[in-house]
Amino acid sequence: MTTFDPHATPPAADTDLPAGEVADASPGNAYEALNEGDDPRWAYGTGFADPLAGVDTRVPDGVDAADLAAYCLMLGDDALVMSHRLQEWCTRAPELEEEVALANIALDLLGQARLLLSRAGTADGSGRDEDALAFLRDAGDFRNVRLAEAVNGDFGHAMARLLVFSTWRLALLGHLTGSRDPVLAAVAVKGVKELTYHRDYAAGWVVRLGDGTAYSRERMREGFAAVWPFVPELFVPHEVESRLVVAGVAADPATVRAEFDAVLDQVLTAATLTRPPGTGPAEPLGRAGTHTEALSTLLSELQDIARTHPEATW
Amino acid sequence: MADLQEHFDRTIERDQRVEPRDWMPDGYRKTMIRQIAQHAHSEIIGMQPEGAWITRAPSLRRKAILLAKVQDEAGHGLYLYCAAETLGADRTELTEMLIEGRQKYSSIFNYPTLTYADVGVIGWLVDGAAICNQVPLCRSSYGPYARAMIRICKEESFHQRQGYELLMTMMKRGTEAQRAMVRDAVDRWWWPSLMMFGPPDDASPNTARSMAWKIKRHTNDELRQRFVDMTVPQAEALGVTLPDPELRWNPERGHHDFGAIDWSELQRVISGNGPCNAERMAVRRAAHEDGAWVREAAAAHARKASAVSRQEVVV
């Protein structure tokens, strides 16, 4: 960069775009190109009008389309709501490395949510897109587990929840890589790589905090105590899941309990912690639309602008 | 000593880079630390005005774009603090200087973000102004800073285009309410954006020395003029009017003339009395203080782990 041309797109020679992209823009106003259509390269993974482009989106033979759509909403809502709670950490993390990591995990989950909601909207034939499903459903229509919606606590709570959530979801997606639904299988293949990192990140912090100072150990212990009542719900299949397990589409949450227990025991031992006492309801409450009040508060924020401007284009 | 000074002077004169292990005058080191730290602080404080809209973003695509952008800003802060550390500064101390008010950050982040259009206008005008300021810093005489700036400028340019694209969508495909939001946001951000280049040249005491050391390549007024000239055609393409009745092309100068900047406002905001100074500092201080136990625990765990590994070596 030896010259500075105020009439060029600011650091024209240094953009991430291929050279031809800059050269093609008209010399007087490099921004004119922006008037035409939607350039997907502006943000990695954020520009595709149809995130499922290229994947066979037909519902497989013998699979109930309404069940498949409901199941995609379950997995998609888990990711969307959990991502929201992680987004709330932005500018509040204990260290800059944690800012970057938490945003990264939130972005991964948001990406998974977008694929799954889009799949739900095509599978059920309603034609609703990801935004219609995220912004125009009420709390009772959300199908996420209640673990994801609980209000944020301190960083110990965040790491307890993330370890539980990512260990459980990684186990489920591991099974889903062999789903008969090609879209779910594709989402799972991508998600397994992401969740392996999320679980590793959370486990590292659980160990550091559990085996850190007396104070951090207490914070970590309280974090697990707050999260634990939501754990039994994770392993009880909703009837939609049970039917789709038989159809070779869904992962049976009951079968991933052993893997979950083994991972949690290993991490808790390294963290010098034990499983909290106490338990919670072993019923698929969130999957059936029964939520805590935390979800409606969360949605009033998530959906605020989109609902205030129903005719708007963003 | 004279040899060292002579070697430094020759490095600057030949447009070569000063590297961390090279001898440098104390004044150069202090000026660089201050410049890099204030830039790092600006990235971190700058996460707040836009970060506040992530959870409310009106589409999932916009949410992903904004979250990625704010994450980039945290990343920029990280590399800049690392660049300052190559000069012997310490990140924790710099952070403490920020939250105690002993070091500044860019005043632009003391203005509020009132609607989602502000996210687009910050990308277009604030990131645009930052790019005008920062592209010449890719040639800063201090090597680690210059190299960090190359990566930062690439990402800033991406953010600017995303901001502009949001505004273009709102203006060309949106509702009248959305267009009104864009116009209102442009009206509020235009003058503060011009102030981002700092005081006029005749009132900028450090400029001459920084230019001589080649840690600054253009004066504040030169960069401000470039920004205005760059932005006017973009505003036309967008269909918004910049809020300055004196703004017009001057064929004799080959530049746009523009109205007088209210420097008393900049002075007021810099001295702590902008609309959001207290809030920005409170959020940063709370994150730092609420996170203290986490950082202490990580350090305690690392000490235990290294004690265990030393024992294993002995055994």
Automatic annotation (TrEMBL), chain A:
GO terms for cellular component: cytosol. GO terms for biological process: phenylacetate catabolic process. It comes from Sphaerisporangium album. The gene is paaI. It comes from the Bacteria. Coiled coil: none annotated. The lineage of its organism: Bacteria, Bacillati, Actinomycetota, Actinomycetes, Streptosporangiales. This is Phenylacetate-CoA oxygenase subunit PaaI. InterPro entries: Aromatic_CoA_ox/epox, Ferritin-like, Ferritin-like_SF, PaaA_PaaC, PaaC. Residues 1-26 are annotated as: Disordered. Residues 1-19 have a biased composition (Low complexity).
Automatic annotation (TrEMBL), chain B:
Coiled coil: none annotated. One of its GO terms (molecular function) is phenylacetyl-CoA 1,2-epoxidase activity. GO terms for cellular component: cytosol. SUPFAM superfamilies: Ferritin-like (SSF47240). GO terms for biological process: phenylacetate catabolic process. NCBIfam families: PA_CoA_Oxy1 (TIGR02156). PANTHER family: 1,2-PHENYLACETYL-COA EPOXIDASE, SUBUNIT A, PHENYLACETIC ACID DEGRADATION PROTEIN PAA. This is 1,2-phenylacetyl-CoA epoxidase subunit A.
